UniProtKB/TrEMBL annotation:
It comes from the Bacteria. Gene3D superfamilies: Dimeric alpha+beta barrel. It holds the Pfam family YCII. This is YCII-related domain-containing protein. Residues 12-80 form the YCII-related domain. InterPro entries: Dimeric_a/b-barrel (IPR011008), YCII (IPR005545). Belongs to the YciI family.
Amino acid sequence: MMILELAFTATPERLAARPAHRSFLARLHEEGRLLAAGPWADDSGALLVFTGERAEVERLLEADPYYRTPGVEVTRVREWAPVVGPAR
């Protein structure tokens, strides 16, 4: 599994791009490639949990222009090995 951490600023471009991004995430979840995703409570960033390997996550980052939108910064991509909960 891979964890993606994002940092946000309140730019109009980010807010305008968010609906399409969330639709993309919903599709990934339906396909089983995204376990969970959501913003921090203060909307300063978000956490996404992907079920695939790093190469797949990198391809998904390229496929979704949200990650290159002003106001969105990918702060960390790292492998995660859960010991409790779903593991795929």
